[in-house]
Design brief:
Length: about 650
């Protein structure tokens, strides 16, 4: 029997989800994380290309443990100052592997985790990548995409074709072999950073055939004429994105996750920036990871929703990247220091991590800590906060240890039980794929931010904040069911569905109509249209039928029950349900305005405030008065007996003083 490209893709996704379920998903009523069990922050550990002295490895790992870190993620980058003659073992050579496995053994002995970036820099690249395995656009006659500044600098690497699982397999085989010894002992994570591969006219052999099979027409005229992104061809671009999305998941994220498992590791991925169905992509790896503040803290809710739908116990975040803006690598002769590097303010950083906690993150990954020789602080990474052994830097000593302790405490509570929500919100993937490039106001600050498909700025509806709404999509609605007043969607449960999009696929409309007929309350904020070139003649009829049902309305009163929290100017919050106990983290209200780039000393504008909220729990309502001191966030423990405040054991006095 011949299977369509679309059917094969869905089968691959379903198989991947089943494999992950069979390989260790646990009852979310239990506390903690199986992969990040103690909640101490990790840090990305920048290994600059050089000879790696075992004494330096041990010295830095001991220092990190002493300052409240729970582990490292090793990232292999260029030689400091881009010096072409820096002695170093070749990437993946026996000498390189020996240093990495030694670091892992030391980490194990110190009860620290040790994860590995699955390559040198990102996206994945290789100075010896076989001919034909490199990424390409439709208009490339040969693979031209290159990545400079890797571990083997000045050699230039070719970027891997992320749309070819066989190319990935050949690349992964080399990485697996070099990391085999390091993967022994405590389980490590294989990590892939955000998608930083050119996406315009992205292509791979066989794409035209797969596209035709899925959509019934030829994509090549739009590629050859370079008209795919013209406004007149917006429906063609949607179809292209839909096929491309399948490739990204089927050919990259699923093989990446499977390979990590077969190597004895687990997979952790930032799917941000990938031209794909982001919500589904995040479910395909063991640990979905978000990023801030190059992505808004609200972006974290996509990863958190994916974790809820697919029963992941941790949501990590690359945190504090480019806090105060971005400076090119070659700034200061290759030193490339970010604005205020070395003088970052913990008060500012706390607002960022609190915003992440309030959007579903429960494990912080610092960005980051540069590898240095014992007693030296010469190395700096150009987009990072400067965690340092140098006592003149802000992020060191007791201040750093205290801040790490605070993040550990909040993370540990945000891993108890499972995420709360009673409202599913349809994620606007179709709108994102129909959208265009970001405006100049965005790209002037972030030239790597390409278009609306990245969803950097989406938020769940503010008017329903008190219900802690989570994202759902067509992939999960297709298998969802509604009975006894509950929408069972993946591993999550909701009471109603909110749809507020301009475009809705036929498949998603079909699922929503089926669920509404079963009785699901649906708030349809507006009337969507079908995206894509080929329209289904049943679409308008189904849309009319949906909106004629008594449990479907464009009025908010269709949503049953009252929200968990209610109040004027309700702070951003996150709630976990652990048995009959609720843990509610309420971020400092000032953190709700965090965005990129952060104003240096922004935390100083917080004069403190008060909020009165209503908490509905265990069949009753309680009014709770909250007084937020400057820089303070709250954690409430809610039981049948009432509401108590959890002492987070942290005094924001560590906020620091602005310096030039």
């Amino acid at each position: 029997m011949k299977h369509s490209f679309h059917t094969l893709f869905l089968s691959a996704v379903a198989l991947s989800l089943c494999l992950m379920a069979a390989s260790g998903c646990k009852d979310t009523s239990s506390a903690g994380s199986t992969l990040y069990p103690d909640s101490r922050p990790y840090t990305r550990w920048w290994w600059f290309s050089s000879e790696i002295d075992p004494a330096d490895v041990r010295d830095q790992l001991v220092w990190l443990k002493d300052h409240g870190f729970g582990g490292v993620e090793i990232a292999w980058v260029y030689p400091m100052f881009l010096k072409d003659d820096t002695p170093h073992p070749d990437f993946l050579s026996p000498g390189w592997s020996s240093s990495v496995s030694y670091a892992k053994r030391v980490a194990d002995s110190l009860s620290l985790g040790c994860d590995f970036t699955f390559g040198t820099l990102w996206p994945f690249s290789d100075v010896d990548l076989p001919e034909g395995d490199g990424t390409r656009s439709y208009h490339d006659s040969v693979e031209v995409a290159r990545r400079a500044y890797t571990w083997d600098h000045p050699k230039v690497a070719r970027i891997l074709n992320h749309l070819d699982r066989e190319a990935f397999g050949r690349y992964a085989g080399k990485m697996d072999a070099a990391l085999a010894e390091a993967c022994k002992g405590r389980r490590s994570g294989f990590f892939v950073d955000s998608w930083e591969v050119e996406t315009e006219y992205l292509w791979t052999p066989g794409f035209d055939k797969a596209f035709f099979e899925e959509h019934g027409y030829d994509i090549t005229p739009y590629m050859e004429g370079k008209t795919l992104y013209d406004e007149a061809n917006i429906d063609v671009k949607y179809d292209y994105m839909k096929t491309l999305s399948g490739y990204v998941m089927r050919e990259f994220y699923i093989p990446f996750a499977r390979n990590a498992t077969s190597a004895g590791a687990f997979s952790r991925a930032q799917c941000g920036g990938a031209p794909t169905d982001l919500l589904t992509a995040f479910t395909l790896v063991d640990i979905p990871e978000t990023e801030a503040i190059l992505y808004e803290p609200s972006f974290s809710k996509i990863a958190a929703s994916a974790a809820t739908l697919s029963r992941k116990d941790a949501v990590t975040a690359e945190t504090f990247t480019c806090m105060y803006g971005w400076t090119g690598l070659r700034y200061k002769d290759g030193h490339g220091q970010s604005p205020h590097q070395g003088h970052e303010l913990i008060g500012d950083l706390k607002l960022v991590c609190d915003a992440l906690f309030a959007n579903g993150t429960n494990q912080i990954i610092w960005h980051g800590f540069p590898f240095n020789k014992v007693g030296r602080t010469d190395n700096w990474f150009y987009t990072t906060c400067q965690v340092s052994t140098c006592d003149t830097c802000s992020l060191t000593g007791d201040a750093l240890t205290g801040f790490n302790g605070y993040m550990t405490t909040v993370s540990s509570y945000m891993k108890k039980g499972s995420n709360y929500s009673d409202l599913a919100v349809y994620i606007p993937t179709e709108d994102a794929w129909m959208g265009g490039a970001y405006p100049e106001s965005v790209t002037s600050m972030m030239p790597w931010a390409l278009g609306e498909y990245e969803m950097r700025y989406i938020r769940t509806p503010e008017e329903f904040k008190g219900r802690q709404p989570l994202w759902v999509n067509g992939r999960f609605l297709a298998d969802a069911s509604y009975h006894d007043g509950i929408l069972e969607c993946g591993d999550a449960s909701f009471r109603s569905l909110y749809v507020d999009v301009d475009h809705l696929s036929f498949e998603s409309l079909e699922s929503i109509l089926r669920l509404a007929k079963e009785g699901l309350p649906v708030l349809m904020s507006r009337i969507p249209i079908e995206p894509g070139v080929r329209k289904d003649k049943r679409y308008d009829e189904m849309l009319m039928e949906l909106n004629s049902l008594p449990n479907v309305s464009n009025q908010a009163r269709i949503i049953p029950g009252e929200p968990l929290l209610e109040g004027d100017s309700l702070p951003d919050f996150w709630c976990r349900v652990d048995g009959e106990t609720l843990y509610i983290f309420l971020a400092n209200p000032h953190s709700g305005k965090v965005s990129y780039p952060m104003e240096y000393g922004y935390y100083l504008k917080d004069a403190g405030c008060s909020r009165e909220i209503t908490v509905r729990h265990h069949g009753k309502s309680e009014i709770c008065s909250l007084d937020f001191k400057p820089g303070e966030s709250k954690l409430l423990k809610v039981t049948r007996d009432g509401i108590t405040s959890v002492d987070l054991g942290y005094d924001p006095k560590w906020s620091g003083t602005p310096r030039d």
